[in-house]
Specification:
It is a single chain. The chain has a two-stranded antiparallel ribbon with strand order 1-2. It is globular, with a radius of gyration of 14 Å. The longest helix has 15 residues. The protein is built from seven helices and two strands; from the N terminus they run ααβααβααα. With 120 residues, the protein is mainly alpha-helical. The chain has a single domain, classed as EF-hand (Recoverin, domain 1).
Length: 120
């Protein structure tokens, strides 16, 4: 799935993305999430981008959390930013999510559409 360059998602792009999220293999999903979360499109996710993602996920899903969004973001970077450059490359993101259960759960929950599909 390729993101549109015009800043808008048409119906077919929406259907393709929805299909990927619902039926895609784990690595395909993680690669798609990475592109979605790389807000500035520079090929890396920095701390600020990840922090905003975590805050948004928590705002949508609610619930109590043992750690703040900032602490969680720092913990993710400590665990999966292999080269320590303060940015997550696509490879670090995918490999880190595979190796870190807590991070994987947060990423999978971020676009969990099962409740929406159940309503439809």
């Amino acid at each position: 799935f390729v993101f549109p360059q015009d800043g808008y998602i048409d119906f077919m792009e929406y259907v393709a993305a929805l299909s990927l999220v619902l039926r895609g293999k784990m690595e395909q999903k993680l690669r798609w999430y990475f592109k979605l979360y790389d807000v500035d499109g520079n090929g890396c996710i920095d701390r600020h981008e990840l922090l905003n993602i975590i805050k948004a996920i928590r705002a949508i899903n609610g619930g109590d959390h043992e750690t703040s969004a900032e602490e969680f973001t720092n913990r993710v970077f400590d665990r999966i930013d292999v080269n320590g450059d303060g940015e997550l490359s696509l490879d670090e993101f995918v490999e880190g999510a595979r190796k870190d259960d807590e991070f994987m759960q947060v990423m999978m929950k971020s676009l969990d559409l099962s409740h929406i599909v159940a309503m439809i």
